[in-house]
């Protein structure tokens, strides 16, 4: 974010000798690339505050949040899931840079770390930052760093780089143009629930750190390796790790290439193989590259429906195609 020294200003007003609040008096603080809160500020009342505007842009703009490597996580439960995973599973300190807590509400249990910056905000600011008009269930919003388990490969990077991004790629979920953030977040959560090892996003997918995707994922975006790349990267991974390519295909869409029905017998036959499962977009389905490169599998359905929602279908495939070290009922 480019801000001139003449236009970037911080509003501060001392309303209480024991509490610092942003409001109407103006103090210039130079030309930082990111608005920062003075250390003595522990309450923000105005949605016009530069730091609030920064948080709003993090929530609304994919390019802005990735350029700053920061993301807004809304809600106590997703924040707690992420911090618990980082502390207990990864053994790393929490990546919460700042916790915004609704004024008059106690800091949620388990989210009060000595190293965590906690700032109280008015209900108007909470609505602005969270994007939720009814904040009855929103007690906190966290400004967090995008995890190092996320990698966005560009076309100029060597294909070999993708090999080291998944530590044990027995089961990789591949998303082919998934644009609905709710569906993408739900697929990430299902991948975690059924023990898959990572997610590869082909071009055309929405940002996994979109606020709606984060809400649906409930912390899963921080708990599983996610790689965004192209078909060259995926082909490199397939060859290096000898992965079998499967693609979910609607039973009603009978093209020139035949498909196999998903069954317990098929799942058991694939249990010891390394798999990539491709899920296509909601509107357009699988890309031609996915169809040509994969064995097509379908979910047999008794009802007269063309297809299932992609997150529902994905949950079924992810459950049925778990590897041997996961429980298959």
From TrEMBL:
Q: Which keywords, in A-to-Z order, does the entry hold?
A: Methyltransferase, Transferase
Q: Which Gene3D superfamilies does this one have?
A: 3.30.1330.30, 3.40.1280.10
What InterPro entries does the entry give? Answer: Alpha/beta_knot_MTases, Ribosomal_eL30-like_sf, rRNA_Methyltransferase, SpoU_MeTrfase, tRNA_m1G_MTases_N
The tRNA/rRNA methyltransferase SpoU type domain extends over 172-319
The GO terms describing molecular function are: RNA binding; RNA methyltransferase activity
Top-level taxon of the source organism: Eukaryota
Q: Name one GO biological process term.
A: methylation
Q: What is this protein called?
A: tRNA/rRNA methyltransferase SpoU type domain-containing protein
């Amino acid at each position: 974010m480019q801000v001139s020294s003449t236009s970037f200003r911080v509003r501060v007003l001392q309303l209480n000798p024991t509490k610092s609040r942003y409001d109407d008096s103006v103090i210039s603080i130079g030309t930082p690339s990111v608005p920062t809160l003075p250390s003595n500020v522990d309450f923000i009342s105005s949605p016009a505050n530069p730091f609030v505007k920064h948080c709003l842009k993090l929530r609304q703009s994919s390019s802005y949040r990735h350029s700053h490597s920061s993301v807004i996580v809304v809600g106590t439960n997703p924040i707690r899931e992420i911090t618990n995973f980082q502390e207990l599973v990864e053994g790393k300190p929490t990546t919460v840079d700042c916790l915004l807590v609704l004024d008059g509400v106690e800091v949620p249990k388990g989210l009060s770390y000595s190293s965590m910056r906690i700032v109280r905000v008015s209900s108007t600011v909470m609505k602005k930052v969270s994007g939720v008009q009814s904040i009855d269930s929103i007690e906190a919003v966290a400004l967090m760093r995008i995890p190092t388990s996320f990698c966005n490969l560009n076309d100029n990077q060597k294909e070999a780089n993708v090999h080291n991004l998944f530590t044990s790629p027995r089961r990789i979920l591949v998303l082919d143009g998934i644009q609905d953030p709710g569906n993408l977040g739900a697929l990430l959560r299902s991948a975690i629930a059924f023990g898959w090892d990572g997610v590869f996003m082909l071009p055309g997918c929405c940002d996994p750190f979109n606020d709606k995707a984060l809400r649906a994922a409930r912390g899963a975006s921080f708990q599983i390796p996610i790689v965004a790349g192209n078909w060259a990267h995926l082909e490199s991974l397939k060859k290096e790790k000898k992965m079998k390519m499967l693609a979910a295909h609607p039973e009603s869409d009978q093209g020139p290439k035949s498909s196999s029905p998903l069954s317990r017998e098929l799942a058991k036959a694939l249990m010891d193989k390394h798999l990539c499962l491709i899920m296509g977009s909601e509107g357009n389905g699988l890309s031609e590259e996915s169809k040509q490169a994969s064995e097509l599998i379908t979910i047999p359905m008794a009802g007269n429906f063309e297809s299932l929602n992609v997150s529902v279908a994905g949950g079924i495939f992810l459950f049925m195609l778990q590897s041997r070290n996961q429980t298959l009922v």
